[in-house]
């Protein structure tokens, strides 16, 4: 059983990895879409978001950058987290997501009410958990087989 200090350090590592990946992916998407102004609030901006009710009808580049950044961050995150988390990855991902919602609310000075953002965040989190737990299962199965 892990100690509280170890769990707290793992949460800090997970948060650091999450925001480093988010800013890297956001910077790449920013460059790919040739936006004129890099917004440091990319990970926290839930107001500039795609509207799923208007599917593919003229999304702005900023909306697409925010969506792509979120989805790719949650895709890459489990591959990084399995390097130092060996159990209960789903718990760390949910903790990081909950802290991210709180930090986003503080940065934007309002609570996110955009259902499109919540749907994207929920789907990305679920996808991240599935990938992460599958990776852990294969890593643990391989280590059991080799010993």
Describe the structure.
The protein has 147 residues and is mostly helical. It has one domain (4-146). 69% of the residues lie in helices and 0% in strands. It has four helices and no strands. It has helices at 4-32, 61-81, 89-108, 115-146. α1 (4-32) runs antiparallel to α2, α1 crosses α3 and α2 (61-81) runs parallel beside α4 (115-146).
Q: What is the element layout, followed by pairings?
A:
Blueprint: H1 4-32, H2 61-81, H3 89-108, H4 115-146
Short description:
The chain is mainly alpha-helical. It has one domain (4-146). The protein is built from 4 helices and no strands.
One letter per element, helices H and strands E, the order comes to HHHH
Shape: globular
Count of all domains: 1
Number of helices: 4
**Amount of beta strand:** under 5%
| Overall pLDDT level | 90
First CA to last CA: what distance?
22 Å
Give the class from helix and strand content and strand pairing.
mainly alpha
Helicity level: 55-70%
pLDDT < 50 runs, ≥5 residues? none
The radius of gyration over CA amounts to 17 Å
Total count of strands: 0
Biggest beta-sheet profile:
none
């Amino acid at each position: 059983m892990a100690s509280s200090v170890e769990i707290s350090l793992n949460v800090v590592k997970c948060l650091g990895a999450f925001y480093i990946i988010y800013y890297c992916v956001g910077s790449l998407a920013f460059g790919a879409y040739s936006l004129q102004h890099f917004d440091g609030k990319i990970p926290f901006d839930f107001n500039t978001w795609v509207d799923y009710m208007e599917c593919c009808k003229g999304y702005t580049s900023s909306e697409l950058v925010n969506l792509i950044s979120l989805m790719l961050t949650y895709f890459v995150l489990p591959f990084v987290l399995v390097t130092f988390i060996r159990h209960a990855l789903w718990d760390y991902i949910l903790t990081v997501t909950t802290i991210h919602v709180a930090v986003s609310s503080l940065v934007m000075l309002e609570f996110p009410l955009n259902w499109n953002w919540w749907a994207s965040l929920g789907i990305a989190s679920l996808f991240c958990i599935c990938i992460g737990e599958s990776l852990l299962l294969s890593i643990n199965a391989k280590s059991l087989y080799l010993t």
